[in-house]
Amino acid sequence: MATPQAISPPRTPSGSAATGVQHVNVRHISGFTVIGNHLAQHAQLSLTAIGLAAHIQSLPTGARVGIKLLAARFPESEARIAAALRELEAAGYLHRSRVRLADGRVVTRTTSYNQPHAKAPAPAPEKQEPAPAPPPEPQPQPQPHPEAATLLTGLRRHAPQLALSAAHINELAPAVATWLARDVHPATIRHALTSDLPPLVRHPAGFVRNRLTALLPPPLPATPEAPPAAIPLQDCDRCDRVFRAPEPGHCRDCREAEPHRAA
Question: Strand pairing of 106-112 and 94-100?
């Protein structure tokens, strides 16, 4: 319910005795504050509270209005100013709250209303820094030894005791790749790892690692080069001498004697 406003009495009619207040009003162009009659003529507020409210409403935003500062500015005592501030809070012209600043200090924030219990405008949202982009999800790395990993993964089909985890398969794959690089067939490697198993394999990865190390065959020796093909023996068409040549014909002596015969 709005506070009832007192209305100034009408001017004294012309010619009558001036018994009340007389006004000489000059229009303000700058440096003025609009104060509502609901405050200036408030029926329950003390004159100190009304004057203090008018002073606070005339201050710029951000001005400090602590009790000690007001007591230093005006002749009223701190107790009287504190009481006036409580009056204004009760009447809806003032609101005080304790807030904590970013540096940890706790200060009093005062909000002045030029209408009792007016709704304060919503504070502008603080500018927030954009949230950092989430790190890229790790991409699965390709298996460097796919054939070896496939062989190790399939061991449990032939020997259920040798079921290996993905981490153990990645760890053992280079050892299997060494066998493959030495021209060992995958079936031979599988047989070496799964034959003659004990009844209980407590640590499959360690068991496979030991066999891959202990049974690793040596590299194959280098293949010797084939000896050059022997040149076949031929019979000379003239003297029946035997000589080596890739094709039938004459021996060297008969070939050298041909120019002399022609001469």
Answer: antiparallel
Q: What is the domain range of residue 63?
A: 37-112
Question: Which of 93, 112, 131 lies at the terminal end of a domain, its last residue?
Answer: 112
Q: Is residue 27 part of a domain?
A: no
Would the pLDDT of 206 be above 70? yes
**What distance separates the 2 farthest-apart alpha carbons in the chain?**
177
pLDDT confidence of 1, banded at 50, 70, 90?
very low
Residues in the chain: 263
Give dist(CA 116, CA 87) in Å, integer: 12
User: Quick one: tokens of 2?
Assistant: 């709005």
Distance, CA of 107 to chain centre: 36
Listed as own residue / partner, the contacts of 205-212 with beta carbons closer than 8 Å and 24 or more positions apart are 205/164, 205/165, 205/168, 205/171, 205/172, 207/162, 208/152, 208/155, 208/162, 208/164, 208/168, 208/172, 209/172, 209/175, 212/172, 212/175, 212/176, 212/178, 212/179
Residue 40 CB burial class (10 angstroms; 0-12, 13-18, ≥19): middle
Confirm whether 2 is domain-assigned: no
pTM: 0.40
What is the predicted pLDDT for the residue at 57?
87
Return the amino acid letter for 205: A
